[in-house]
Structures are given as C-alpha cells and as structure tokens.
C-alpha cells in the first residue's frame, strides 16, 4: 500500500470503519524502531510493503527518517551542519571533564558557558587532555565597567588556558578552540563577561599532542556554584 | 588522604567520583600556579598604586596622561 493519500477522511457516527481505512491510518503514522535493523525487518512479507513517504523514528540515533522510494533519509535533528553540539553539561564544584568531544569530524570547536557563578572570585581555567605539562601560554586583558582602565596579564608556561575570573553573580563566556584533536598546537580565542567586568584572552597550547577531552576547573578554595557548558563543532566545509 | 571529587561527562553519562592520583597532581599543579599568578597580579597592583600615590594621581588620571 502506498502512503499517498487523496483525501483526509472525516468519520461520522455509526460509520463502518474498513480495513483499508484502518491500514491507511496505521500505515501513515510514525512508527518507532529501536534501530535501523529492526526498522528494515518491520516492512515487507506479511507486513506493509515499504513505500515512498514512509516515516519512522529511530531510538538509537534519535532521528526522524523518511523513505524516498529508494533509501531512508534523515529529517532531523541534523546529524551534520555548520555548528553541531558534541557535548556539554552542568559544572561540578571544582573540575568537570567533557570526554570524547574532540574528534576527526571537526577541526574547530566553540565552548560556550552560561549562568556560571562561583563561591568567590577566582580565575577559571580550561585544559585539554593531550597536554599535562607547562605548555600553555595565555594573554589576557580585562576592564571593569566602572573604569576605563585596561589591565592585562601574561601567563607563560601554564598547565591550562586562562578563561577569566567569574563573579558570584551570573557569568558567561565563549571560547573558540582551533585544532585540539589534530596533532598540532591548539589556539584558543576567548571572551567573557560578568556583572562587573569583561575579559578577553588569546592563548596557545604548544603541545602538539591530540586531545579528545577538555576539563574546566576552578583551582583553589573557590568552587563553582552553578554553570552550564555546551560544546559545538564547526563544520570543516 | 581524601582527594576532591571530579565530574566526568561523556555524552549523556555523568559520573561524579574522587580524582585519581594523576588528576589530583594536575589539580594541585594548577592550584599552585593560580596562587603564584594571583600573588604576582596583587604585587603588580600594589606597586602600581604605590607609584600613583607618590605622584598623587588616580589610575584613571594616569591612563589619561598615557593615552
């Protein structure tokens, strides 16, 4: 039975529901399958013949698909795009590692943090898994909103990138990481804003080792009270 | 000695556990760095303020002069 419909029937009281009408109703719904294997097994034989326009939902990959008459195609959510979320979550008190977020799929990543609050003001940092030594160099500048004075610092030979100093009130930041997975130096371009000041930093990790994970940390007695991180990959082409 | 907890997020799986020895060493290294950097920054602010005090001007006034 093809999925093509010529009418959208309106049933009335006491009308006899035919098998054809019921099959059309059941066949044009969106069946849910565990995997593409169970999807393929569900059509043909004594079941409905697969036909163009068939929809389904695949639990394993969380996607909606349609059959175009020759093959299954994905409707959404998009598995590829200009900016694709690859990981993230809620910050723990002192350190949180986001595992397996960097891969060969993307060269450049956006790390975005929002609603970050800390127990007391201190400098938030980020490290990548391929480096465990003093190979990070950061330049930072910052200004308070109450003064035009620009201050800056250099952090040479550190064990992490310097992001900035969150406050006890809401802080947000975004950092672009270039080539953390590639066996090359990794560059970081970061900007952060709090209720009282703003930060920018530019940095490099000169270690050429490949990284698959990153850790956001608050080194010291100060801890994170809240904060959500989202990590996205930029499409390579 | 009890080491601090760390959170590992892998996809949808969130694990809170005690830091391993290696993770703790890295954390302490970062902690010591942060302390040294904070002290250097504080010393710089103190030295700058001492100069401003000797000149009898504020930081904004000094910025105006240098701008």
Features:
heterodimer; A: 237 residues; mainly beta; YefM-like fold; 4-stranded mixed β-sheet; 2 helices; 16 strands; elongated; B: 67 residues; alpha+beta; 64% helix
Task: Report on the architecture of this protein.
The complex is a heterodimer of chains A (about 240) and B (about 70). Chain A has about 240 residues and is mostly beta strands. Chain A folds into two domains: about 20-75, 3-Layer(aba) Sandwich (YefM-like fold); about 85-235. In chain A, about 5% of the residues lie in helices and about 45% in strands. Chain A is built from two helices and 16 strands. Chain A has helices at about 20-25, 35-40, and strands at about 30-35, 55-60, 65, 70-75, 85-90, 95-100, 110-120, 125-130, 135-145, 150-160, 160-165, 170-180, 185-195, 195-205, 215, 225-235. Chain A has an eight-stranded antiparallel beta sheet with strand order 5-16-7-12-13-14-9-10, with no helix packed on it. A four-stranded mixed beta sheet of chain A has the order 1-2-3-4. In chain A, strand 1 (about 30-35), helix 2 and strand 2 (about 55-60) form a beta-alpha-beta unit. The longest helix of chain A has 9 residues, at about 20-25. Chain B is an alpha+beta fold. Chain B has one domain (about 5-65). Helices cover about 65% and strands about 20% of the residues of chain B. Chain B is built from two helices and two strands; from the N terminus they run ββαα. Chain B has helices at about 20-55, 60-65; strands spanning about 5-10, 15-20. In chain B, strands 1-2 form a two-stranded antiparallel sheet. Chains A and B meet through strand 5, strand 6 and strand 10 of A and strand 1, helix 1 and helix 2 of B. Strand 6 (about 95-100) of chain A pairs parallel with strand 1 (about 5-10) of chain B, so a sheet runs across the interface.
* Biggest sheet character of chain B: 2 strands, antiparallel
Domain count of chain A: the total is: 2
Shape by Cα distribution of chain B: elongated
State the helical fraction of chain B: 55-70%
Secondary structure tally, helices of chain B: 2
The strand line-up of the biggest sheet of chain B is: 1-2
* Intertermini distance of chain A: 41 Å
The count of DSSP E runs of length 2 or more, i.e. the number of strands of chain A, is: 16
Shape assignment of chain A? elongated
Runs of chain B in which pLDDT lies below 50 for 5 or more consecutive residues are none
Helices and strands of chain B, in order, run as EEHH
Structural class of chain A: mainly beta
Give helix % range of chain A.
under 10%
How many helices of chain A in DSSP terms? 2
